[in-house]
Structure formats: structure tokens, C-alpha cells
Amino acid sequence: MAGRRPMTKPLRLEKHAARETIKANQQEQQQQQHPWPLNASDALPLPLYLTNGVFFTLFFSVAYFLLHRWREKIRTSTPLHMVTLSEIAAIISLIASVIYLLGFFGIGFVQSCVTRASPHDDAWDFEDRVVDVEEDSLRVPCAASNDCSVPFKDVVMTEDDEEIVKSVVAGAIPSYSLESKLGDCKRAAAIRREAVQRMTGRSLEGLPLEGLDYSSILGQCCEMPVGYVQIPVGIAGPLLLDGREYMVPMATTEGCLVASTNRGCKAIYASGGATSVLLRDAMTRAPVVRFPTAKRTADLKFFLEDPLNFDTLSIVFNRSSRFARLEGIQCAMAGKNVYMRFSCTTGDAMGMNMVSKGVQNVLEYIRNDFPDMDVIGISGNFCSDKKAAAVNWIEGRGKSVVCEAVIKEEVVRKVLKTSVGALVELNMLKNLVGSAVAGALGGFNAHASNIVSAIYIATGQDPAQNVESSHCITMMEPLHGSGDLHVSVTMPSIEVGTVGGGTELASQSACLNLLGAKGGSKDSPGSNSRLLAAVVAASVLAGELSLMSALAAGQLVNSHMKYNRSSKDLRKSRSEG
Questions:
Q1: What is the pTM of this model?
Q2: What is the spatial distance between Cα 298 and Cα 289, in angstroms, rounded to a whole number?
Q3: Burial of 224 (0-12, 13-18, 19+ CB in 10 A)
């Protein structure tokens, strides 16, 4: 018996392999016989919405006919079982329509309930087997050298999950539908992650999966997630602004940035703080419409810019939200096309969706007087969103803020390690003349986008709006008599919000809470987003002060060599940990 024992395991493996082979062959034969499962919607060779319409109409019409006939029989005392040929046809039609509607709606509902109740039941809805061309083109086939059945080790898969992964890899289940099918966002992310690794043959080890509430991003922040990227958050401050102290969160991977901004905050604090002024608060959206002639285009332009029509247009626009308030309409013509730049306040939201809804309301309203208007697009780039544009630099977009401070000569010398004269000269030759030589558009500063991007990422703003939000002109001049330095930043298009989008995520919400600007203000709608814009501008002021001082003192290269270059092998440290 001792000699036979080593043969037991191989024999079991061979039997198991044989059973799996037979099972696979049977499934393949079934798929060849019925490559596509039959659905109730296949009853007619028509598009799905037409088939549904036919059977809905049939159901209600024959039901009404039968009820009407039976009421007549009851009124005339005719036995109900005595039916005519038309009534027989109506009964058959009623039964057929009921069977179709139950098959189309009822069975799918029951299957979805059974699937959620019994995860071991392989009752997937294979209607998605007909994958869109776009989805199929995005799915990367496994390379010949890669074995898609070999699991990666960073995620533990159950047997059920393993089957789903294989279906995703094979294209039977679209990756984008995992959340709706599974009802578990984290599990969907893990399965998608494993499928991507197998399809590409590349590991995602090092990209975290645990530690994020995936349900919080569903339908709001990110589609088809497989993990999240870690960005360190540093704190600069205290920043003394308008008599209050703020600790500024900055998410960045650039060494020296937080330290440099912190030094600027120290200089501002030691000099009595900074002061901010909100010049304007209005988000914009500019649709483009076209008419048969330029004259008709001009008629619409005059109509929209007529002050007599503004009150009516405001009422129509403001229906979109209890916070949206139309501020103005600016039109620009290009031949037969007109671009209408709507400006409105949006409360504590950044407001792109809000203003778009209001614009849609106005377009539908003015179509009554201009039926020949052809709406080309809800956005015609005269807004202008996420692009460097002179209209934002001149007219502003979002919050237009000016922030200033008087830095004492002693602070410039002891904290910033330079002189007032050197700072003034460098600012003129670099930020003003140098930017003009470069043909800069809104870029008359040293590195405003560094600070804007870091705060935007930390507080859940749209990082792409850093493009126009970083429009900034930095001014420095000596105060005669005292020898102190007057420094200011003017930023005409800071686009921020404290509700909606990424601001709802836990980490970003915590950073907003640190600033005292979390969520929407109930007492004064819009005050939290205006506060955030002021903090952004003041932080830029601090960053400009520190970087310009480092440049004037020749410290920039030495600082970056010391703090922005690490000799530590991070990959080795991670593997050892």
C-alpha cells in the first residue's frame, strides 16, 4: 500500500482534468448550437424600442376592446363564454403581449435578483456579449507570449471572481458593466484590475487597491477604476490672510514646493499678513449658434444684449438652479455664427454644469423668436474652459481675486535672504519683460501654477482648470520712505468650488475642512468657494515671494539639489518593507 500512495494524487489530477475537458467540450457544443441566447426582444425583426412599442400598443388596445365587449355582454345579459372570432383573436393577442412583456421585463428582474442573492449562480445577462465596437477596440488582446489564465499575485481571487475575470478577458462581459452587474464597486475594481493585468501581461503591483471607497466615485469622479494614485499632502502655514490664520494643504510630488511656500507664508505673517479683494464671481459658458445669414445672426446678438430683454432671460436662466443667477451675456460674431458668453454666479459649486443647464433653458426659449437658429454646440470655446484664452485674462472667469501684502525690509533681508531692490528688479525683468518677450498669455508670474495645482489636487478641484486658474500677474515695487516691499498678485480666473465632484471624497473633504471651507455655506451661499479662491491667491503670493527671493539670492539650484533629489532607492525600500 505504501508503494501505491504516490500514484493517488496524479490519478486524481488526471480524472479532474478529464472531467474539465469533457465539461469544456459540452459547453463549446452548446455555444455552437446556440451562439446567442434567445431574448423576448427577438420576437420581431425590429429595433428594440419599436418591438416594445408594438407589444405595449397591442396589450392596451386589446385589453380595452375586451373590457368594452364584456361590459356590453353584461349590459345585454349575454353569456361571457360566448365569444366571436374577433374576441378570440383579441384574447390570443392579449396572451401573446403578456407573455412578451413578462419575458422582457419580468424575467430580467427575477434573474437580477437571483444573481445578487446567489453569487454562485452563473446567471449573467449575456445580452452584453454583443460588445460595442468602441469597447472591443479598447480591449487589448493577450500577447502570444502571455498566458491570460495565469493570475497575478497582488489580488486574491475567489472561484466566482476567477470566472468573471476570464469572461472579461474573453470579451463576454464588458469591463464597464462590472459595477452594475456585481453591485459591489470594490469587487468590480479588483476584478477589472486582474483582467487588465492578464490582458496586458503587465503587473499593477504598487498601485494601491485597498483604502478607497469606490462607491463614492461611482458616477461622479472616475469610471472603470483599478486603484488610486498616492500623492503626498504637505501643509504650508500659518498663512495670515484678512486677519485669519490658515493652514494650506498642498498635494504635490515636487520637492521644495511646500517648503518654499511655507517660507513665503512666514514672511507674510511676520509682516502683518496679506489682504484679498474679490473683484468678480461668475462662471461662464458660451454656446455657438448659426443662422442662414449674418443679418439674422446680428439680430440675435442685438436681442441678447438689449437691457430690456435681460430680466426675462434671467428668469428663464435662473430656473436651472436655486443658486444660479445670470450676471450678463457677451456676444461675439464670426460671419453667420454668434458666440454667446453667459456669466452667472453658482453658489459654492464650481458651476460648469449649473451654467450649462441655464444656457440650455435660454436657447430653448429664444428658439421661439428665432426658429431658424441652428445650435452647433453648447460650448463654442468662447467660455473658455481649460485653455489659455485672452477672454479669461481680460474678462475673468470664476473668481477674480487680487491679493497684496507689504513685506518689511527687515523680513526680506532676514527671512527671504535678499533685498527689496533685487526683488523689484528681478520681477520686472523676469515676470514682466521676460514673459512679454516669450509672448505669454496670463503668465506674468514665476510659478503660480505650481501652487494652484497643488491646492487643487488636495481640495478636489478639477486639475485641468489649472490652465486658466493660473493666469496671474505678479507686481513688486518699493515703498519710498520705509524701504519695505509692496507685492501683489492679480488672478482673474480662479475656478474653484467646495461642493460636488472631487470635493465630496473623504481625503479632499478633509483638506477643505482644514481651511474651514468644507461643503456649501448655509448662511451665505458662495462664501466657502470665495474663501477658497482667496486662500489660493494668497498662497500664490507666498510662493511667488519665496521663489523670487531664491532666484535673486542664487539659492534655487542649491535648494533643489538638497531637497528635490533623493539618493534613496524607493523601489528597494518598498520591496524590503
A1: 0.74
A2: 12
A3: middle
* Closest residue by Cα to residue 498 from 463, 474, 530: 530
386 tagged catalytic = yes
Please answer whether residues 189 and 204 qualify as being in contact, where contact means their C-beta atoms are separated by less than 8 angstroms: no
Residue in 336, 386, 417, 430 annotated catalytic: 386
Pairing of strands 443-444, 472-478: parallel
Angle between the 527-553 and 506-515 helix axes, to the nearest 10 degrees? 80
Q: Which of 541, 387, 536, 408 is nearest to 467 (CA)?
A: 387
* Grid-cell match 430683454, residue found: 309
The three cell numbers locating residue 308: 430690456
Catalytic residue among 281, 462, 468, 495: 462
Task: Please state, for a pLDDT cut of 90, what percent of the chain lies above it.
Answer: 68
Q: Which three cell numbers stand for residue 92?
A: 390570443
* Catalytic residue check, 166: no
Angle between helices 556-563 and 527-553 (to 10 degrees): 110
Query: Which of 138, 262, 253, 292 lies closest to 543 in space, CA to CA?
Result: 262
Half-sphere exposure of 180 (CA within 13 A, CB side): 9
Exactly one of 73, 181, 357, 560 is catalytic; name it.
560
The alpha carbon of 385 is separated from its chain's Cα centroid by a whole number of angstroms, namely 14
CA 355 remoteness from chain centre: 17
What's the distance, CA 371 to chain centroid? 35
For residues 474-483, give the mean pLDDT. Answer: 94
Strands 337-345 and 275-285: antiparallel
What SS3 class is residue 61?
helix
| Residue 28: active-site member | no
Adjacent-strand bridge partners of 274: 241
Number of Cβ within a 10 Å radius of residue 243 = 8
Phi-psi region of 37 (alpha: psi -120 to 50; beta: other; left: phi over 0): beta
CB 342 within 8 A of CB 317: yes
Please state, in angstroms and rounded to a whole number, the distance separating the CA atoms of residues 245 and 138. Answer: 49
Tell me if 471 sits within 8 A of 491, measured CB to CB.
Answer: yes
Instruction: Read off φ and ψ for residue 335, nearest 5 degrees.
Output: 70, -125
Q: How far is CA 237 from CA 24, 141, 380, 412, in A?
A: 65, 50, 41, 18
556 residue type, one letter: L
Annotated catalytic residue: which of 154, 254, 327, 477?
254
115 falls in which pLDDT band (50, 70, 90)?
Answer: very low
Please write the tens of the pLDDT for every residue from 479-499: 988 999 999 999 999 999 999
Catalytic annotation on 120? no
Do residues 428 and 561 make contact, with C-beta atoms less than 8 angstroms apart?
Answer: no
Task: In whole angstroms, give the CA distance from residue 112 to residue 105.
Answer: 11
| Helices (H) then strands (E): counts for the chain | 22, 11
